[in-house]
Amino acid sequence: MNEGRKRLDPEELPRSVRAALEKHVALDRELYALAEEIVAAQLAAAGPRLSTDLAALRGWLAPSLVEPPPGAHA
User: In angstroms, rounded to a whole number, what is the distance separating the alpha carbons of residues 47 and 24?
Assistant: First the structure.
């Protein structure tokens, strides 16, 4: 059972805890921005064929996403 549904009010946390969390969130945001740049560069380098290959892959995977493969237990 997931018991983590109750959200704390940030104002209930001590100031030092909030400051530490903000520092880590800032690092996460910085890392995410860097990852976005890397992915954008990789997509640009892949060229227009990527869309065609992705569509083919999705078509190939689609049947397995709808029903389990033969012999699989539901």
Answer: 35
Return all residues near 18 (Cβ < 8 A) that are at least 6 apart.
10
| DSSP code at position 4 | T
**Which residues constitute the domain of residue 51?**
12-66
Question: CB–CB of 45/39 below 8 Å?
Answer: no
Judge whether 73 lies within some domain. Answer: no
Q: How do residues 8-49 score in pLDDT, each as one tens digit?
A: 788 888 999 999 989 889 999 999 999 999 999 998 898 888
Tell whether 35 is covered by a domain.
Answer: yes
In a domain, 50, yes or no: yes
**Sign of CA pseudo-dihedral 7, 11, 13, 15:** positive
Record the pTM. Answer: 0.49
Domains: count for the chain: 1
Q: Match 């009010």 to its residue by tokens.
A: 9
